[in-house]
Amino acid sequence: MAKITIKDIAKKAGVSTTAVSFAFNKPDRLGAETVQKILEIADELGYIPNPIARSMTTGRTGTIGVLVPQPLPEALQNPFLMEFLEGVGEICTRDGYSLMLIPPLQGSLKRAIEYSAVDGFITLGLEEEKSVMLFLRQMKLPFVVVDSDAMDEVPSVNIDDEFGAKKAMQYVLSNGHRNIAIVAIRSGKQAHYKDYVGTLRHRILGYQAALEEYGLSIDNPNIQLVESDNTIQGGKQIFQKILAFDPAPTAVVTMSDIIAIGIYEAARDGEIAIPEALSVVGFDDIPISKLVCPPLTTISQPTREKGRNSAELLAHVIEGDPEHPHIVLPTQLAIRDSVISCGTAPENKDPELPAP
Amino acid sequence: MAKITIKDIAKKAGVSTTAVSFAFNKPDRLGAETVQKILEIADELGYIPNPIARSMTTGRTGTIGVLVPQPLPEALQNPFLMEFLEGVGEICTRDGYSLMLIPPLQGSLKRAIEYSAVDGFITLGLEEEKSVMLFLRQMKLPFVVVDSDAMDEVPSVNIDDEFGAKKAMQYVLSNGHRNIAIVAIRSGKQAHYKDYVGTLRHRILGYQAALEEYGLSIDNPNIQLVESDNTIQGGKQIFQKILAFDPAPTAVVTMSDIIAIGIYEAARDGEIAIPEALSVVGFDDIPISKLVCPPLTTISQPTREKGRNSAELLAHVIEGDPEHPHIVLPTQLAIRDSVISCGTAPENKDPELPAP
DNA sequence: TTGTAAGCGTTATCAA
DNA sequence: TTGATAACGCTTACAA
Fold first, then answer.
1. B36 neighbors B30 (Cβ within 8 angstroms)
2. Which of A292, A298, A308, B97 has a Cα at 20 to 30 A from B327?
3. Which H or E run contains A327?
4. Do the strands B298-300 and B332-334 form a parallel or antiparallel pair, or are they unpaired?
């Protein structure tokens, strides 16, 4: 037996399809008995309104799409996304939206967008994919950008990346470190750091600002900049590179806790003590950062709040609100135990380890 | 200007809507020039096929729904879900599906299902919600159940919960612990442990089996069973309860790493040393379990593989495959440092050995 | 190779 | 309080 439709109910109840529709959506406009009868029959037949057909006429799907720039398995490895989605989920729960995760389709976010039946999008960290935003705007789809340079007429949510990054680097420098590795998040495109855009750019600017206060610069030979995938695995791999640097860094400043944790793992495998042999700073303050050994010093950002704000803005755009606020959330240095003063590190008798 | 439709293209190109449709979906059936012209005009006008209308006729949405039993913010707090979704994401990426997270709508999963335009569902740990499965089956929607008692005619993916739980408890017992707290995952409904169903039941059965080997039982006064929300917060709260038990437990066996980690946090706040003052065992082996202090002894399950298997099965059902395998994945005891031998007895890391 | 026209299952409009 | 009927935007027999 095929799927039960509104027609089957109408026929069996001896009413029109309109009546059936009303019974579900606007019961007030029908006689109480009629509604009663229709509902009974619908229940009996196991009728469910077809959500696609409904969307067809209402133009609403009741779902919010989150555009993630990486393939799902990779993106989901980052607890940061999880926490962000928690915030989005709060609003979804409150307003009755479902949540769709939309990764690139065959490598293309644009294509993924075309195939997605959602009421609006939240874009996440579109570094190099500026064209995606233009595309969305051109298509007149409601959207909100997060962790990207703000555009006019499009609501955005960002954190104070530059200031946060600056504080991270200042803290390391104030602890006496001068040989420092900076781990940036790989942006997809190969680019010189001066050509970075968005979040990446702001964070580099922050690092640079702090370095300059100490008469240093990213261009100095004792400041090394590398890029890593934003995964634990990426952090592990980058650790090997860092080990090979000359001069050996005494501190590594990363743009992501998850990378820092990869470095933790690799360091433990290589029996290199953190922070004694190597100080580490993260960015994001994901929940586990306070639980790892040693607790990770990092830049705390209100991730969940960011998610909540984004979803809230998107809900407004979907409702037709013409406003387009640009929200900037604060960051904060969370000092824990993964950075120690460069001078106080215990003497290192193992020639394999980076000297303090 | 309203949204561009197939008609606009047809008019401007001087062809029928059929031709436009063909140009996108079956270019072979049209002359090369015609296709060329249509595509050009479509591009120029910024035309995107409406995915809802397409779904309307094809009956396909290209998205997989994952039914999560808790509100999104709560569910997303568990890295276990994340890892599971990574596996699902692998298949989504491979087969071009999007991923929809579907939490209860106004407290009701059934209602959420009704409103979800997806090609099929993966249900996750439906303990008490057996009716949801019946509902799905009655509606003839494709679905796969994960972490629930298997039903006939419905593909399922489970792990060997009972055996895993047994190994966890055996390990604790073999280390000499006799005053033990068991932390179950709160199931929603209040029920005596003997009335547990699904995963919960299997795990309890495993614990009980191990206890019986040592002449003990959950009913013993020195074995305490409590329930906790499956969150870090839940673990923190349950720790307070455990502290108050008499006799004081020397070990706590939890059904979830995330709960164990909550206990870690609370223990640290309360300055109770793990494992010296309290041994802890988890379940799941989420990625951070090896990174916390001390690394958590737990039952390892192939979570990502579970996700991959589920999505693969669902894809088959959606394709019309009538088979309905019941997959059971293995678990494994991951011995780390959160359990030590009780009292004066020497540490026993071999669960096969009898108690010292 | 291209066009006509009939759906798909709802909701919305307007009339009865 | 109800019912015809026309959208909604697309796909797909079937025809030409």
1. no
2. B97
3. strand A326-329
4. antiparallel
Lowest mean pLDDT among A112-126, A151-165, B120-134, B311-325: B120-134
Place of tokens 């959160």: B338
Alpha helix segments (H runs only) across chain B: 6-13, 17-25, 32-45, 51-58, 72-75, 79-95, 109-114, 130-138, 161-174, 198-213, 232-243, 257-269, 303-318
Main-chain phi, psi angles of B115, to 5 degrees: -90, 0
Maximal CA-CA distance, chain A: 91
Nearest CA to B249 out of B215, B272, B283 is that of B272
> D4 C1' – A16 CA distance, angstroms?
9
Residue B182 and residue B226 in contact, taking contact as beta carbons nearer than 8 Å:
yes
Task: Give me the DSSP letters along B209-271.
Answer: HHHHHTT--TTSTTEEEEEE-SSHHHHHHHHHHHHT-SSPPSEEEES-HHHHHHHHHHHHHTT
CA distance A269 to B61: 46
CA distance A147 to A125: 5
Residues A282-305: what's their mean pLDDT?
95
CA dist A348 to A167, A222, A247, A276, A277, Å? 28, 20, 16, 9, 8
When pLDDT is cut at 50, 70 and 90, the band that residue A345 belongs to is very low
Q: What would the two tokens of residue A302 be?
A: 């209100």
Which protein residue has its CA closest to C1' of D6?
Answer: A57
Long-range contacts of A76-79 (CB under 8 A, 24+ apart): A76/B82, A76/B83, A76/B85, A76/B86, A76/B89, A77/A231, A77/A232, A77/A258, A77/B82, A77/B86, A78/A230, A78/A231, A78/A256, A78/A258, A78/A286, A79/A257, A79/A258, A79/A286, A79/A287, A79/A288, A79/B79, A79/B82
Look-up of token digits 């200031």? A163
pLDDT digits over B11-56, tens only? Answer: 999 999 999 999 999 988 888 888 999 999 999 999 999 999 999 9
- CB-based burial, A215-233: b 16+ in 10 Å, e otherwise: ebebeeebbbbbbbbbbbb
User: What are the phi and psi torsion angles at A294 (to 5°)?
Assistant: -75, 155
Instruction: Inform me whether the C-beta atom of residue B248 falls under 8 Å from chain A C-beta atoms.
Output: no
Quote the CA–CA distance of B165 and B213 in Å, as a whole number: 14
The CA–C1' separation of A54 and C9, in angstroms, is 7
Cβ proximity of A123 and A142 under 8 Å: no
Asked if A154 and A196 count as a contact pair (C-beta separation under 8 A), the reply is no
Pairwise CA distance, residues A190 & A27, whole Å: 59
Cβ contact, residue pair B92, A86, below 8 Å = no
- Local structure of residue A346 (DSSP, 8 states): P
What is the nearest nucleotide to B6, using C1' and CA? Answer: D9
Q: Which nucleotides of C are covered by protein (CB under 7 A)?
A: 1-5, 7-13
Q: How much is the pLDDT for A140? A: 86
d(CA B213, CA B206): 11
Q: Which residues touch strand D (CB under 7 A)?
A: A 14-19, 22, 29-31, 33-34, 56-57; B 2-3, 5-7, 17-18, 21-22, 24-26, 47, 49-50, 53-54, 56-58
**Whole-number distance in Å between B284 CA and D10 C1':** 46
CA atoms within 13 A on the CB side of B29: 9
Give the Cα-Cα-Cα angle A340, A346, A349 (nearest 5 degrees): 135
- What mean pLDDT value characterizes chain A? 91
Q: Count Cβ atoms below 10 Å from residue A114 Cβ, excluding itself.
A: 16
Q: What is the pLDDT of residues B75-95, one digit of tens each?
A: 999 899 999 999 999 999 999
Query: Which residue's C-alpha is at the least distance from the C1' of C3?
Result: B16
